[in-house]
Design a protein that fits this description.
Chain lengths: 418, 166
């Protein structure tokens, strides 16, 4: 019987033929933790009486969620992480290096066919590199540090095929918001999703990451793309490790198959307070906004900043709007600086904060006030997500967010000349 | 294991930001401190209403969102004995088991109302609603999860067996 990408990768890492529904104990190629989850992993590791780290060269911990530290409580936890990394010989990405989900692929830690876990729900991002990667909790991460392994239930897979050319002003974020809206927030619970089709083949790896990143917003365990030349070029520029491209068999069994045509798609927006509460931008025009945020592991990459800069060039954001920008990594920040993107955005009124999570998760760097509306390129708009439960968060593409910052209300990027 | 207490009712899609807001969880590892903020954005008085042993009862997709293990831990430290919901999000589900917080998937969780007195037999998954005098049945967990839960959590499982024993 044909197999899916998930069945093949989990099977190859556990040494058995793995079919959907099976429980396997699999070898982990790479594991990551961030500053919101790693301190608890350290505590769990101590509880497990862990000594040295298993496969310490295949682990990273990242300080990105509250970076640099906004208060002494966080500072103590950061210190705990630094001391742990030093003592155990584990790689640490400290403040300003970037968001974990940008760093792990960008620094060459993932190749096609890998099995990767991370103590952060958006670890599914690396599915764009044809890896099976999924979010776990702190104790699970400590178990990987101890044993190099983890148990999994092999998921069934939903196959989503995208066809057609994206219209101007419409991006992978819009495709994904549309998909999450269709699937709903638990429509893919416990399952993997495979994304393919002619639309995907034309997309950059960065644009694909926006989609795999948000697979968890429909409950999925992983959001995986096939390996193609673009993926091979992306990884070969970053690592010498041997890729193991993995595809589904023609007769693979999927739990569901969906075909989505994108030629008529228009920019989409997720309304407060859930990601699947999506609407076409046209239904929300004139909704006033006080803060706009461009960044995060969803849309803080170079092509995202470039699109925003193209819209903002030579213009000024509306008086009364705060535009906050957080590049997803230091390297992206440097590249954007080199090509003048930073200059353009700052001149238009944008404010840059440290590469990292920025204000995405409400720890610092731009907490909205009561009753304010925020439009953001992030992946979540739960009540209280940005640190104030009386604020309202709308999610959209970088183009829609930039256009909205100019107008002071939710705006259709297709109307801005660029 | 038998649990006894009253139900605190929530709706569908209770995400991890509601369970414990990011603004607290990044600051401390003191779970008793975090426990005082459980469900704060939905019900600021929640913690003062809980008597040790009570249950959280919710609709579908409980615990969606982030991978924060602080969510099940804070619930546990708020002295909730178990969470009963129509369905759970994947990472929360794993984290709850790993940290020893019992969870029950019950398709009829909607039949339980705020304040109902419940008795739960974890091994059989039987939920008795004493207020309504009715019995509900929870789904069986995968064997590996039952094992980890019975042994007190994943850390205890690994200490006992020196690795995964599935
Ligand atoms: S950018 Fe936001 S969603 Fe991404 S890892 Fe950071 S806090 Fe999580």
């Amino acid at each position: 019987m044909g197999m899916t990408i998930s069945e093949k990768i989990l099977g190859a890492h556990s040494g058995i033929e793995a079919n959907a529904g099976d429980i396997v104990v699999a070898d982990i190629d790479y594991a990551m933790g961030q500053d919101g989850t790693t301190p608890l992993s350290i505590r769990a590791f101590q509880k497990m009486k862990g000594g040295s780290l298993k496969n310490s060269d295949r682990l990273s911990i990242v300080i990105d969620h509250s970076s640099p530290s906004p208060n002494e409580g966080v500072s103590a936890l950061h210190k705990m992480m630094r001391e742990f990394a030093e003592e155990k010989g584990c790689n640490i990405y400290d403040i300003g290096e970037g968001v974990c989900h940008q760093l792990i692929p960008e620094r060459g830690h993932v190749v096609p066919g890998d099995l990767v876990v991370g103590a952060d729900s958006h670890t599914c991002t690396y599915g764009a590199l044809n890896a099976f990667s999924t979010g776990i909790g702190s104790t699970d991460l400590a178990a990987v540090w101890l044993t190099g392994k983890l148990w999994f239930r092999v998921p069934s897979t939903i196959n989503i095929v995208y066809r057609g050319r994206l219209p101007k002003g419409v991006f992978s974020k819009d495709i994904m918001l549309h998909t999450v809206g269709k699937m709903t927030a638990d429509g893919a619970s416990y399952e993997a999703v495979e994304f393919r089709g002619s639309t995907i083949s034309r997309m950059s790896v960065d644009a694909r990451m926006t989609m795999s990143n948000m697979a968890v917003e429909m409950g999925a365990k992983a959001g995986i793309f096939e390996c193609d030349q673009k993926v091979m070029d992306y990884v070969s520029a970053k690592t010498n490790r041997q890729p193991k491209p993995t595809g589904s068999d023609d007769d693979a069994v999927f739990s569901r198959e969906l075909e989505i045509r994108v030629s008529d798609l228009i920019p989409m927006v997720a309304r407060p307070h859930s990601v699947d509460n999506v609407a076409p931008v046209e239904a929300l025009l004139e909704t006033p906004i006080q803060q706009a945020f461009i960044g995060t592991c969803t849309n803080g990459r170079l092509e995202d900043l470039r699109i925003a800069a193209r819209i903002l060039k030579g213009r000024r954001i509306k008086h009364g709007v705060r535009l906050i920008v957080a590049p997803a990594s230091k390297n992206i920040f440097l590249d954007a600086m080199r090509v003048g993107i930073i200059h353009t955005i700052v001149k238009a009124g944008g404010v840059f904060v440290t590469p990292g999570c920025g204000c995405c998760v409400g720890t610092h760097n731009g907490i909205p006030s009561d009753g304010e509306n925020v439009i953001s390129t992030a992946n979540r708009n739960f009540k209280g997500r940005m640190g104030n439960s009386n604020a309202f968060i709308y999610l959209a593409s970088p183009a829609t967010v930039a256009a909205s910052a100019l107008k002071g209300c939710i705006a259709d990027p297709r109307e801005v000349v660029w | 294991m038998n649990l006894k207490g009253k139900a605190h009712k929530f709706g569908d899609s209770i995400n991890t930001d509601y369970i414990i807001s990011g603004k607290y969880k990044f600051k401390t590892l003191d779970m008793d401190e975090l426990a005082t903020h459980v469900m704060e954005d939905l019900d600021p008085d929640f913690c003062s209403k809980v008597t040790a042993g009570d249950f959280i009862v919710a609709g579908k997709n409980f615990g969606l969102g982030s991978s924060r293990e602080q969510a099940p831990l804070a619930i546990k430290h708020a002295k909730i004995s178990a969470v009963i919901a129509r369905s759970f999000a994947r990472i929360f589900f794993r984290n709850a088991i790993n940290t020893g917080l019992p969870i029950l998937i019950c398709r009829d969780a909607d039949r339980i109302d705020e304040g109902d007195e419940l008795e739960v037999d974890l091994s059989s998954g039987l939920i008795i609603n004493r207020t309504k005098e009715e019995e509900l049945k929870a789904e069986k967990l995968p064997p590996i999860m039952i094992r980890i839960l019975e042994e007190g959590g994943l850390a205890e499982h690994l200490i006992r067996h020196g690795g995964f024993e599935v």
